[in-house]
């Protein structure tokens, strides 16, 4: 009798554990990671082309953003990109930023 009860209980617990681990990224989170990755790639492009941090900040300030949080986040991403010593190509920066953002967002949930 114990074996009969233990089997369904263990299956239920295993399925709950799988559901908890199979977290998905919400569309808003995916958009934010994608947008941030594009911003990081553009900042790396500017950095590699010799544009100063001051000029990059001025470009960001002049740009019209669709959401209120975007301007400050773009400034932060640009500053971090300029502070970094990396000389990676912008596409590699985009991919790395996106992967790390997704990993961070999923870990946060």
In words, what does this structure look like?
The chain is mainly α. It has one domain. The chain is about 80% helix and about 0% strand. Helix 2 (about 25-50) crosses helix 4, helix 2 (about 25-50) runs antiparallel to helix 5 (about 90-109) and helix 3 runs antiparallel to helix 4 (about 70-85). The two termini are about 40 Å apart.
Number of domains: 1
Give the rounded overall mean pLDDT: 86
Structural class by sheet pairing and helices: mainly alpha
Give the ordered list of helices and strands.
HHHHH
How far is the first residue's CA from the last residue's CA? 39 Å
Biggest sheet, open or closed, and with what strands and sense?
none
> What is the tally of beta strands?
0
> What is the rounded Rg?
21 Å
Q: What's the helix count?
A: 5
Large-scale geometry: globular
**Parts with pLDDT < 50 across at least 5 consecutive residues:** 10-15, 17-21
Helix proportion of residues, in percent? over 70%
- DSSP strand (E) fraction? under 5%
Protein name: Valyl-tRNA synthetase
What is shown here, in short?
The protein has 109 residues and is mostly helical. It has helices spanning 2-21, 27-48, 53-62, 70-83, 90-108.
Q: Which structural traits does this protein have?
A:
109 residues; mainly alpha; 5 helices; 78% helix; Valyl-tRNA synthetase
List the helices and strands and how they pair.
Blueprint: H1 2-21, H2 27-48, H3 53-62, H4 70-83, H5 90-108
């Amino acid at each position: 009798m114990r074996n009969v009860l233990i089997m369904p209980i263990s299956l239920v617990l295993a399925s709950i554990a799988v559901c908890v681990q199979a977290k998905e990224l919400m569309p808003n989170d995916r958009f934010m990671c994608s947008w941030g990755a594009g911003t990081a790639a553009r900042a790396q492009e500017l950095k590699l082309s010799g544009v100063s941090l001051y000029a990059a900040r001025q470009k960001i300030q002049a740009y019209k953003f669709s959401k209120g949080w975007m301007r400050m986040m773009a400034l932060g991403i640009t500053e971090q990109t300029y502070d970094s010593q990396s000389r990676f190509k912008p596409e590699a920066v985009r991919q790395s930023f996106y992967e790390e953002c997704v990993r961070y967002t999923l870990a946060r949930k």
